[in-house]
Amino acid sequence: MPVTVQKQEETGVPAHATASARCPHLGAQYNPFAGPHVDNPHAFFERLRKEEPVTFSPMLGMWLVSRHEDIVAVLKEPARFSNRDMLASGTHLTDEAKAIFSQGFDTRHVLLGMDPPEHTRLRRLMNRGFTAQRINGMAPLIQQRATELVDTFAGNGHADLVEQLAWPLPAHVILGVMGVPSEDVWKIARWSADLHQLLFEHVPPEQQVEMAQGVRELQRYCIRLIEERRANPREDLTSYLVAVEDDGEALTLDELVMAIGASLLSAGHESTTALMANTWKLALEHGLWEQLRDHRERVPKFLEEASRYDSVAHAMIRTAREDVMVGGVRIPAGARLMLLYAAGSRDESLCPHANRLDVTREKVPQHLTYGRGIHFCLGAPLARLQFQIATNVLLDRLPVLKLVPNQDHGTWQSLVLRQMKHLKVEWSTAQ
Ligand code: HEM
Questions:
Q1: Cα distance between residue 233 and residue 128, in whole Å
Q2: CA dist., res. 258 & res. 188, Å (int)
Q3: Fold of 8-426
Q4: What separation in Å is there between the alpha carbon of 370 and the centre of ligand 1?
Q5: Which residue has the least CA distance to atom 43 on ligand 1?
Q6: d(Cα 302, Cα 292) in Å, to the nearest integer?
């Protein structure tokens, strides 16, 4: 049911606010932070796709877009839909917190918050650090870390796969790739969490200053690391980014700090944790562990089908640069759109019985878990590689595995990521 939006100048109030006040609609029921949409949003997303594929959420102040076709149409047009508010969508900062935060984090230099032509240049430079050869060269490090981690609990008969593998593995891998000492893992994780929460959650005012200080610490840490690598280059990605040039043009200090702190150390971690844990949970819930164990060639395809079926990167944000129609609904210039990737990836137009996890599909359709278009995830090949290696280590060491029944996964969600805190599993240790 398309909602007609009047122009702002005709009413004196923002057009989207008028629309939401006039008719109660599904958008008003959506809450990404609490309640049933955190544990399982898919029944609600199905209603959205069918009944109100483009609808306004008064709570978020954004238009929800749920159909695959509409989402892809937006992603293909960066000239009409900007990323400029992508990193300014979460917490409304107090003046004090804003003053500290803005010293430590400059959205103008973060890839995800940029538009062409600035984005094109920075992405080209960063792509050069993520060649297939460089990613594949990370496999021995991932294999070693995954084996060490699984060895610590393989004899126990039980484990929490989030705490003991899905969280520490990508944390240590990204630190290793960047050349950051592994003993710094906890403080970097804390600062990254501060950044993610301020950007993509609604943090209460009394917690904001401390978190903004964490973001400032992350920036200072990155500056020290960059200076150190300028003086003493090594074989790590930080040294590479410090030195990389394209037609004589290098990354500026601001770009380097944001690339290392925000785009790699922060973005490269929790999303991979979420993906690994969610995909293992789906394999166990659907009785697929033994099948994967006996047919390892099915692991990559299973990952894609699981990512399509339940995308952990459940949404991303764009801002309309002009009055524009999306899915038959007029969106006013300046309005923000929340593109529901998890809804779009289950769209019935993509594949038959899209609501079913089906490992026998001949071809898994292209889902939206890593986005699409110019902002397509820089780290997707690294995330896939980590999943495949870690899953094979698990299948080797724990060939018969089951979920601990009736557990609380402690599922948590921000505007952009859905993640479990726990995935408890058990197995027999008898010979
Ligand atoms: C399973 C893990 C991951 C998921 C689900 C994921 C998801 C995404 C998504 C959906 C986007 C597009 C955002 C948009 O449309 O606005 C994105 C962009 C990005 N991702 Fe990932 N990501 C993952 C892992 C990683 C890793 C390991 C890294 C780095 C090592 C990384 C770095 C980035 C960066 C830098 C961008 C911004 C690209 C740009 O704006 O051009 N991601 N990611």
A1: 17
A2: 14
A3: Cytochrome p450 (1.10.630)
A4: 6
A5: 377
A6: 8
Distance 345 CA to ligand 1 centre (A): 16
H or E element, residue 55: strand 54-57
Q: Is the CB of 271 under 6 A from ligand 1?
A: yes
Domain boundaries, the chain: 8-426
Give the pairing type, strands 316-320 and 249-250.
unpaired
Contacts of 299 (CB under 8 A, 6+ apart): 292, 388, 391, 392, 395
Any ligand 1 atom below 6 A from CB of 215: no
Report H helices in 296-340: 299-309
Residue whose entry in the numeric block shows the structure tokens 């359709």 = 365
Distance separating the N- and C-terminal Cα atoms of the chain: 60
* Assigned token pair, 168: 């520490």
Please give the Cα distance from 298 to 317 (Å, whole number). 33
0.85 surpassed by pTM: yes
DSSP string, 134-187: HHHTTHHHHHHHHHHHHHHHTTTSEEEHIIIIITHHHHHHHHHHHT--GGGHHH
User: 181: cis peptide before it, omega within 30°?
Assistant: no
Distances from the Cα of 423 to the Cα of 118, 167, 289, 368, 402, angstroms? 41, 11, 15, 24, 11
Q: How close is the Cα of 271 to the center of ligand 1, in Å?
A: 8
pLDDT score for 1: 34
Tokens of 207: 């917690």
Task: State if residue 112 touches ligand 1 by the CB under 6 angstroms criterion.
Answer: yes
Cα–Cα distance, 245 to 256 (Å, whole number):
12
- State the burial class of residue 183 (Cβ atoms within 10 Å of its Cβ: 0-12, 13-18, 19+): exposed
Three-class secondary structure of residue 344 per DSSP = helix
Contact 215, 198 (CB under 8 A): yes
Ligand 1 neighbour 123 (Cβ under 6 A) = yes
Q: What is the pLDDT of residues 173-226, one digit of tens each?
A: 999 999 999 999 999 999 999 999 999 998 999 999 999 999 999 999 999 999
**Would you say how long the chain is, in residues?**
431
Å from CA of 313 to ligand 1 middle: 9
Low-confidence residues of the chain, pLDDT below 50?
A: 1-22
Residue 78: CA count within 13 A, CB half-sphere: 17
